[in-house]
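[Discussion] Sanity-checking designs against the backbone

I'm trying to build intuition for which residues belong where. Below is a structure token string of 73 positions. I'd appreciate it if someone posts a full sequence so I can compare it with mine line by line.
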């Protein structure tokens, strides 16, 4: 899995990953994989969202959270 070692990522991808984690990391576990898939797993029930770009994943997270907010403790 790419994303855990951000130093191994191209600068733009690392920046997008850091931004998604900053904004949504309390509600979703966010990663990007070598295949180019961006993934977010809800921290409350583990449901996964997938997208082909950070921008698309951000839109899916916003839609998912708007429909069913993730409880934050």
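Best answer:
Here's mine. Compare freely.
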């Amino acid at each position: 899995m790419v994303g855990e070692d951000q130093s191994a990522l191209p600068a733009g991808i690392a920046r997008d990953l850091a931004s998604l984690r900053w904004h949504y990391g309390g509600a979703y576990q966010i990663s990007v994989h070598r295949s180019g898939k961006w993934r977010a797993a809800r921290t409350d029930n583990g449901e996964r969202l997938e997208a082909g770009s950070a921008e698309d994943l951000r839109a899916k997270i916003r839609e998912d959270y708007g429909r069913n907010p993730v409880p934050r403790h």
